[in-house]
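Exam revision sheet. Question 4 asks you to relate a sequence to its structure. Input first:
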Amino acid sequence: MEMMTAMTALTTLAAHPGPWRDGPHGGAYDAPAWWPVFPIGFGLFWLAVLAGAFYLLRRRGWARPATAGADPLAQARSTLAERFARGEIDEDEYLTRSAALRQDV
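Answer key, structure tokens:
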């Protein structure tokens, strides 16, 4: 009998909501229906920050590889070397054109 009384007391204690569940809504602390706004908004905020950083880095040219785009002679030499490497021009034409580019300096 004593075991039954102890079990009943423990069951009653476990079922009791406790003082932390007493609130203005009678113990119903469910999240409001618009709770997804905060995590979605937080995620969109960080996506916007990353997109803005990526845009600024690309616009400033920090993410671009260093090319000879500023120097037209260096770009011409690079193009000439690429054409020679692909076999579009022979060695004599390569040497003639590279000498012509050196004369422009």
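Marking note for examiners. The mean pLDDT is 79.
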